[in-house]
Amino acid sequence: MAKSFTVKVLEHCYVSPPPSSAPQTSLPLTFFDLPWLFFSPGQPLFFYEYPFPTSYFTSTTLPNLRHSLSLTLQHYYPFAGNLLLPTEPGKPELVYTDGDKVELTFAESGGDFGHLSGNHPREVNQFHQLVPKLPNCVSGEKQLVPLLAVQITVFPNCGICIGLTYHYVSADGRTFNNFIKTWAWYCGLRDSYFPIKYLPFNDRSVIIDTHGLEQIFLKEWWSRKSSQEIVVDLSNMVRATFVMSLVDMERIKQWIIAQCRKKNQSPPIHLSPSVLVCAFIWVCLLKTQVGLNGKCFGEDPTYFGFNAGGITRLNYPVPPTYSGNCIGFARSMAEINELLEDDGIVVAAEVIGNTVKKLDKAILGGAENWISEWEVLIGSELHVLVSWSPKLDLYETDFGWGKPTKIEEISIDRTRAISMTESKDLKGGIEVGLALPKSKMDAFGTFFIEGLKLFCNPFN
Predict the structure, then answer these.
(1) Of the candidates 125, 295, 403, 457, which lies 20 to 30 Å from 179 by C-alpha distance?
(2) Spans in the chain with pLDDT lower than 70
(3) Bridge-partner residues for 83, per DSSP?
């Protein structure tokens, strides 16, 4: 492991939209937003190669990053505002007032940039110094929660890390992706015309509550509002990234089809690349957690949770640049002993694919149980959650220094989730990030490598 290092904060400042460029706004949370009140913030890190000294960064790049962030916030002004939490049963809302701001921290690190931006196992605690904290804000009897904080850490003559912490009630992955791409465009100014496809549609009234979910979720939130956050011991945790290529996914697909033919069974109905990767990772993680002998768990359930885009699945139109949450919650379940069998990946692919198909038909089907079902999932001993999506093309986020060297989602350290992004280097490939105790990460790596070898021959 690399030596420990410190991050020296050089400056704290605040960035607002240009004066009078954004309207004073109050945006009540929709039923798509409300479930995210239960979740801790997202914490993505974007690593970029930057072979210049700190002095050059502070004189040229930092002023540009600060100014371009201000220009971006004139469009994405809810990020500069706050989440207003009522003190008695009522509905939270996002509020923005002229002059609201985002805290920006500038720091310098003597850490090993190449080590931190690699795929190999690295201590999770090394990354937490690169993540900004959301400041606490209380105004009178009102509780105001800032929605976004940014930290830019320079590794002299090596690279830059842009770290963000943002509250999920303000944006889903699609909206966040549009936000950071807009910031990158303003910073790089590589095109003569602004990419209109990223301009946000901030009117949340387009979300129609056809199932009466708002009141259900509000009642759930107020009844659980005082619940304690889960504490995770990070002292021996490492994070690593595993890459799966299109060839890997195709081999898994053909192996699954061959196994079904042997048993005269129909193959799973939905074998997309994401489903194949999720099924494989689920089985590898389960073997890592319980070992190959899972008899002590037997028919106990294990869960796989993920989100699905709602804009194309709703039965009414929502602008593709809608700014806010528009995703459905999904939970797949299988018995542990089923997934530990030789053909466990067939079962995993089938239950995940069936869940996707159900969402395609009715994304809000059973939505009244989203919170209670996810509470069961998160409370279970063996479960997997997915953060991010390969469809977001996050590695296309170019601030003018080229594509990111690496992207990490730090919040998975505490949520037992995995992150999924498109591969930086392999077209059509998928990167899977996860955090585990070191001994289990070693075991997972073995199951991952040996598992891919198995699929080289579909007739095994």
Answers:
(1) 125
(2) 1-3, 137-141, 190-197, 225-231, 292-297, 457-460
(3) 94, 145
Per the structure, the complete domain to which residue 157 belongs is given by: 7-224
With residue 435 as reference, give the H or E element that holds it: strand 430-437
Q: What is the mean pLDDT of the chain?
A: 92
Q: How far apart are the C-alpha atoms of 53 and 73, rounded to whole Å?
A: 28
Q: Give the three-state DSSP class for 337.
A: helix
In angstroms, rounded to a whole number, what is the distance separating the alpha carbons of residues 290 and 287?
5
User: How far is Cα 435 from Cα 123, in angstroms, rounded to an integer?
Assistant: 9
Whether residue 288 sits in one domain with residue 218? no
Q: Are residues 269 and 296 in the same domain?
A: yes
341-377 pLDDT tens trace: 999 999 999 999 999 999 999 999 999 999 999 889 9
Whether residue 108 is contained in a domain is answered as yes
Residues 208 and 326 in one domain: no
- Which three-class secondary structure string do you get for 59-96? HHHHHHHHHHHHHHHCCCHHHHCEEEECCCCCCCEEEE
In a domain, 229, yes or no: no
Q: Are residues 73 and 100 in the same domain?
A: yes
- Give the phi and the psi of residue 286 in degrees, each rounded to 5: -65, -45
Q: Measured between alpha carbons, how far is 145 from 62 in angstroms, rounded to an integer? A: 26
Percentage of the residues of the chain whose pLDDT score is greater than 90: 82
pTM of the model: 0.95
CATH of the domain at 126: 3.30.559.10
